[in-house]
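Prompt: May I have another protein with tokenized structure?
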Amino acid sequence: MTSTQIRYRVTGMDCASCAAKIEGAARNVPGVEQAKVSTASQVLTVEVDDTARRLPVVEEVVEGLGYRLHRIGGMDEDDDDRLPDLSHVTPAYKRALWIVVLLNVGYGVVEIVGSFLAGSQALQADSLDFLGDGLISFLGLIAVGWGLAARAKAAMLQGLFLGLLGLGVVGSTLYRVFVQHEPEYLLMGGFALVALVVNVLAAVVLLPHRTGDANMRAVWLFSRNDAIGNFAVLVAAMLVWWLASPWPDLFVAFGVAGLFLQSAWAIVRDARQDLKQAARS
């Protein structure tokens, strides 16, 4: 049986790791031959053997995770630049996204300053997570209704910018390996604790705009993933105090920065693929 390719606009992606969850859920649906989510354009592409039977199941599974799908074009169209249905983008939802953007980007900047005050590379790496999430939410907010090519170009710039930030953190952490300096563990732990609070506030802001238990679970997963990084910094601060050594701070910094660079690369890779798709349309 010949497979058919269908594309959806995804609403509710708050971070790069969302793409992996959506892809995994879609691929587990029988009859789905391929599923790919572009972090750059927030588009899900699926290839199915029977659209009438498979697509309702794909939509139910993905929306059960807490995301919303809006089919691009008709059943047999490849019209990627067609404007999606924007009825779900309410003024209240936009305000919530702006608050999340300000919380993430604002505290990302604060945590960068805090990383210098505390002399902590782990705090510096954790700040990238805030900046990355804030910029991804910002792109999703301003790019509502944009065509595929415009979204891909904006995402490409975003991915390159985030990648440069990540490489900068890796470089400064490597410098600290050779010029070791024990961080101020109290300041380090304090900023990490406030980071946990900011992540909880972001989840509280988003929660009223997600309906149903599954959608609340999506907000929880988003917050949990961010909180893992904050908790790692807290643990590193305690180990720095206990061992009187800067190595826990450096190890956590490398780990968090490495995951961040992986996400930045995913954005750039997806943006390149979206630009090629837009050129063929």
The beta strands are 4-11, 32-38, 43-48, 68-71.
